[in-house]
């Protein structure tokens, strides 16, 4: 019995998960001007690391996600089509964008507001361990960890 050679092109697998599965959920929760947008957000798992894709709406006019590879970007753009708040998802190289195009030459503060982000977070974000690992949570700027919830 001959073994078939491995496929030269790996399967491009992008999984859409509930927003709270994203490892950066708390970061976005503290930075968004309108945190209610998280209701329609999704976690995008590329390989093993789920990151948050935040929809447009209210104060947020544009969103984007870097997918490391153009093939993954195409898969994600397709997966986001038809989801609330992910209007006009387009893959361009490694980047997936949705919503309004960001105008050229925006000042940094105007760019941040265009994407619906606060100048500073409402509270420090924490780095949480994966569930059921018995890890500890580190708050930003903390000198020691706090027990996991």
List keywords for this structure.
17% helix, alpha+beta, 149 residues, 24% strand, 3-stranded antiparallel β-sheet, 3 helices, single chain, globular
Give the biggest sheet: 3 strands, antiparallel
Give the averaged pLDDT, no decimals. Answer: 81
Helix content: 10-25%
Order of SSEs: EHEEEHEEHEEE
The shape, in one word, is globular
Distance between the termini: 52 Å
Helix/strand structural class: alpha+beta
Share in β-strands: 15-25%
The beta-strand count equals 9
Radius of gyration: 18 Å
Read across the widest sheet, the strand sequence of neighbours is: 1-2-3
Number of helices: 3
User: Which spans have pLDDT < 50 for at least 5 consecutive residues?
Assistant: 135-144
Describe the structure.
Helices cover 17% and strands 24% of the residues. The protein has 149 residues and is α+β, with helices and mostly antiparallel strands. The protein is globular.
Can you summarize this structure?
The protein is of the alpha+beta class.
How is this fold's topology laid out?
Blueprint: E1 14-18, H1 25-31, E2 42-46, E3 49-53, E4 62-66, H2 70-80, E5 90-92, E6 95-99, H3 108-114, E7 126-127, E8 136-139, E9 146-147
Antiparallel strand pairs: 1-2, 2-3, 4-6, 5-6, 7-8, 8-9
């Amino acid at each position: 019995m001959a073994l078939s050679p491995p496929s030269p092109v790996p399967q491009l697998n992008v999984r859409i998960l509930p927003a709270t599965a994203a490892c950066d959920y708390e970061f976005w929760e503290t930075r968004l001007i309108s945190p209610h947008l998280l209701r329609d957000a999704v976690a995008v798992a590329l390989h093993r690391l789920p990151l948050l894709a935040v929809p447009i709406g209210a104060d947020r006019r544009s969103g984007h996600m870097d997918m490391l590879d153009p093939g993954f970007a195409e898969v994600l753009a397709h997966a986001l089509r038809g989801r609330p708040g992910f209007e006009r998802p387009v893959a361009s190289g490694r980047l997936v964008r949705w919503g309004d195009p960001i105008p050229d030459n925006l000042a940094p503060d105007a760019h941040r507001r265009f994407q619906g982000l606060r100048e500073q977070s409402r509270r420090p974000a924490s780095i949480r361990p994966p569930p059921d690992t018995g890890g500890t949570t580190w708050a930003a700027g903390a000198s020691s960890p706090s027990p996991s919830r």
